[in-house]
Amino acid sequence: MNFKLIKSAGSYLTIAGMIMAGTIANADDTLRIVSWGGAYQKGQSLGIFQPAAKAMGITVKEDTYGGISDVKLMVKSGADKFDIFSSGAGNCASGGAEGILEKLDYSVIDVSNHLPGMYSEYCAGADIFSVVAGYNTDTYGDNGPKTWADFFDVEKFPGTRAMRNNVGAQLEAALLGDGVPMDQVYEVLDSEEGIERALNKIRTIKPHIAVWWSSGAQHAQLMKDGEVDMTTGWNGRFDVAKEDGAKVAYHWQTGIMDWEGYGIPKGAKNKDLAMKYIAEMMKPEYMAEFAKYITYGPTNGKVYELGLMEDARALQMPSHPENAQHQLTLSTEWYAKWRTIASEMYTEMMTE
Amino acid sequence: MGGAILEKLNEEGLQKVAFKERLTLLGLTLPYLIFVAALIIIPVGWLFYLSFIGRDGGFSFENYERMTKSRAYIRIFITTFKISILTTLICAIIGYPLAYFMSQLSRRWASICMIGVLIPFWTSLLVRTYAWLVLLQKKGLINNIALDIGLISEPIKFVHNTTGTLIGMVHIMLPFLILPLYANMRSIDKDCLKAASSLGATPTRAFWTVFFPLSLPGLTAGLLIVFVLCLGFYVTPAILGGGARNHGSDENFQ
């Protein structure tokens, strides 16, 4: 009886040992990456994450997350949830300034063909997108808001609005709407008074803001459902919603161009592999494939040089010179310096 | 004389038994105590300790200063309490009569009603919340039907505001109030009410002087559960409340 017990306990231990050995062996070639879900991550997954993982012979597990504050929470609490995250350049820069990110090793990651400024110490640029003012074409027909001044003009364009529940690219829109010329936006924003001026502009339309959105999937849904008549949001999400039958349009004159890239949280367990994986994802063929799913342009100039993208598709990208000329480029330096303060002031404004 | 000795022996025996019983009880609660200590007391204590650590890593009250200075945090606190109190009150107003009604039915009919209360429990919270969004939004089912039959001329704003949050939260919280309340009401002896009537009390008076006080333990338990759950509620206010981050639990994630 006792012998039997010992024997079975022994076999359980063996099995447990095997499982543990298995997970350890497994961990060496498994990476966990998080992004924003919805149409965007679908494009990343099909165009970049999984093909790149296959090429390297590793396993990549995907999940969604809530932005740089999640990274901060994870690093500060010593948890271990993911190895790589996909993030806007500004938030990445502010995370880097707070010391919660690993410096990227550009001797491993090749960015020699990247467009100027499309990578930073903590963030390897992957795609270029724009924040634009999307509007419902049922409500406004062809005469929708063409500029940010129109977005903030509730008399000329009556209707409900939505804005983001987080400061990213909203203050720039407000200042442009207040008549600040494009090249002076970040000069004006470089003080608390300037931030307050932008917030005051948002305050003027606050009664008309029905929803403060938190994710791209959400603002796309708001436009699909006709819940609001116009919203700030990402151009690619609007394009995908439009393909699905949503009555939505936008103009490049409202564009605030920004780029998205990959970063590594401080102390990531699989840092070296993560670095190699990011290097793989920087290849032009993945970026070209990704751009087939959503209208976000490549950061790697080789995509155009090698003719990996059709001309008609290239014209839909925010980074196409034809479109880029109308747009403000988001300043990552400003976010590194002001994000924390501006966020608190923005929350203050929202909850008033 | 002999009686006293026996009594003493008896007392000693009883004490031994009582001690043993206490030990057994302690043994039985030990797993729970370990669970609470490991998963609640230690982490919460750690969090409490962290709240006194400033940006530079030293001891400071700066986090508390920020909390009391920022008007946004204060407003968030107020809104959280306001929404939680309102939800609890509405749950009580809807839940009490329902639980009372169910407690007066025969066991069979009460079980059928109970299924009605419990079925929403089987559906995921997220699904129920989004279902409300589909029903209540500007071009949602309810507004569309009401517009079509000419009941209203402008869509009513049900969601992305306090109304939406309350509708969603009351729907989710209601069973938490009804379950303890119903169990309590079932156990109230109906003969007490009969006795009150036989002494000349009107049904209303019998209810308020006899039944209601006896149902208070269940009501208090239900209200407490609902209120505490409301304070920490994240998903429903985030989806139905319009996203201005004015529920406390939402802000904790930032």
Provide a short characterization of the protein structure:
The complex is a heterodimer of chains A (352) and B (254). With 352 residues, chain A is of the alpha/beta class. Chain A has 17 helices and 12 strands.
Describe this structure in words.
The complex is a heterodimer of chains A (352) and B (254). Chain A has 352 residues and is an alpha/beta fold. Chain A folds into two domains: 8-128 and 260-325, 3-Layer(aba) Sandwich (D-Maltodextrin-Binding Protein, domain 2); 129-258 and 330-351, Periplasmic binding protein-like II (D-Maltodextrin-Binding Protein, domain 2). In chain A, 48% of the residues lie in helices and 17% in strands. In chain A, strands 1, 2, 3, 4, 5, 6, 7, 8, 9, 10, 11 and 12 form a twelve-stranded mixed β-sheet that branches. The longest helix of chain A is centred in the N-terminal third of the chain and has 26 residues, at 2-27. In chain A, 52% of the residues are buried. The model of chain A is unreliable at 17-26 (pLDDT under 50). With 254 residues, chain B is mainly α. Chain B folds into two domains: 1-50; 71-251, MetI-like (MetI-like fold, Orthogonal Bundle), CATH 1.10.3720.10. Helix content of chain B is 79%, strand content 0%. Chain B contains eleven helices and no strands. Chain B has helices spanning 2-50, 62-69, 71-104, 107-122, 125-136, 141-148, 162-186, 190-198, 203-231, 235-240, 248-251. The termini of chain B are far apart.
Sequence-ordered SSE layout with sheet pairings:
The complex is a heterodimer of chains A (352) and B (254).
Chain A: H1 2-27, E1 30-35, H2 38-56, E2 59-64, H3 68-76, E3 84-88, H4 89-97, E4 119-120, E5 123-136, H5 137-140, H6 148-151, E6 161-164, H7 170-177, H8 185-188, H9 192-205, E7 209-213, H10 216-225, E8 230-234, H11 235-243, E9 248-249, E10 256-263, H12 271-281, H13 284-293, E11 297-298, H14 302-305, H15 311-314, H16 321-324, E12 328-329, H17 332-351
Parallel strand pairs in A: 1-2, 1-3, 6-7, 6-8, 10-12
Antiparallel strand pairs in A: 3-10, 4-5, 5-8, 5-9, 5-10, 5-11
Helix pairs in contact in A: 2-13, 4-17, 7-9, 9-17, 10-11
Chain B: H1 2-50, H2 62-69, H3 71-104, H4 107-122, H5 125-136, H6 141-148, H7 162-186, H8 190-198, H9 203-231, H10 235-240, H11 248-251
Helix pairs in contact in B: 3-7, 3-9, 4-7, 5-7, 7-9, 8-9
